[in-house]
Amino acid sequence: MSARLSMPDASGAVRDVALPDVDCALAARGDGVELGGTDIADAEVRIVRTRKGLRLEPVRAGSLVSVSGQDLFCKDLAHGDWFSVGGHRVSFVADAAASNARAQSVPHTRRSPASSDVERAETPQRVAKTPSRTSPVLIGSLVSLALLCAFVLFRFLDAATSGRDPKELLTFASIQLENGQYARARATLEDAMKDGDPDIRRDGEALRSRIDAVEREALFVVVLQTAREEDEALRSFVDRYARPALERPAARELLSMCDAWLSRHEAQLARHASGDALLRSVRSLRETAVANAQLDQPESAQDAAFAARARLRLMVREYKAAVLRIDAFLATHPGDAVATAERAAILAEGKEWIDKQQKRIAQHADRGEWDRAREELAKIDRHALLPEWESAFVDVRARIAADQASGR
Asked: Which backbone phi and psi does 296 adopt, to 5 degrees?
């Protein structure tokens, strides 16, 4: 059996759907999810085939996908990963996992009395293999022991350092540095240098410089990883909207995305040689966008409509940002027929979508899934809820507040 998705269909019934051998996308439909080609209407996420396997990414470039509770720019899917499409849970089942599941499953076929005797005869062999079931307990015990040892070690290293030999303190500071405890390493280092001789102070200054360098590098690794993930989102946008050509509305939106990326990351990446290639790549992409954006011409209603619609291809649709984008255009082009019609269409579609989200959050509350209800309501508040839709959430918001006040 090929890799597949476990997801509800339009009627709400959960079923397994085999993934095709080509890139595909998923969109919310009725009370469930529809799997189709990458051009499927209202798609929120897509699954693309890469050299590593299957990768989940948002249709809307620059947005996030929530996989197994983590918000990511994209994710190489592994067996057991789950994500949301229109608030519906979709689980990924990998090829290998499916094979293992088949190998370990017990056939539900009728056995003859003779075969039952054979099965009973084989029982001791099966019992002999069952101790492997206790391995999680053993592993858990070993993990607990390791954590206890680590706790004791850290308590020892963090013990009061007054009166200790400065050389020992330098050693402790080095160990804390290796463990990524930069603030503690600096504090221990200060204790060592306070009563140390010139040699200790010289070694301490060298260690201080090393702590600063290692911490800067650790912070830069995080910055670089985030920048790379957001760069992948830019490339995904190009793959979707620049084939076969980058039209003007998409070019203007891409330019805006590149500028936002550069404002977040350019200054930090420019200070490290390892960021040069990424900077050149995004700057080149920006030049492509500028060449096709026709910046010598004023913005049109079609430009504004594309930019607004681009903000709705998300797992949690950004209706706030979409309406603000259209309103910004209407502020300088009052009464524009195309923009006014687009705004009305977005609001109509949004009301239908927001009612589904309210129903889904209420169902979480009905099942006592309060954490999930709070999490989804927070996302709706942050990205999608317009003032005119607030009344739909009065009841469920009161229920969530009551549960939180009860301390359950």
From this structure: -75, -10
Choice among 61-70, 115-124, 273-282, 350-359 with the minimum mean pLDDT: 115-124
DSSP H or E stretch at residue 374: helix 370-383
Q: What is the pLDDT of residues 184-226, one digit of tens each?
A: 888 888 888 887 788 888 888 888 888 888 887 777 788 888 8
Measured between alpha carbons, how far is residue 262 from residues 230, 283, 284 in Å?
11, 8, 12
Please state the pTM of the whole predicted model.
0.51
Residue-wise DSSP of 178-226: HTT-HHHHHHHHHHHHHS--HHHHHHHHHHHHHHHHHHHHHHHHHHHHH
Nearest alpha carbon to residue 179 among 156, 201, 160: 156
- If residue 404 lies in a helix (H) or strand (E), which one and from where to where? helix 394-406
Q: How far is CA 321 from CA 27, 126, 227, 317, in A?
A: 21, 61, 23, 9
Q: CB of 304 within 8 A of CB of 329?
A: yes
Do residues 357 and 386 touch, judged by C-beta distance below 8 A? no
Q: Which tokens go with 380?
A: 């709706």
How many Cβ atoms are within 10 Å of 336's Cβ, its own excluded?
A: 17
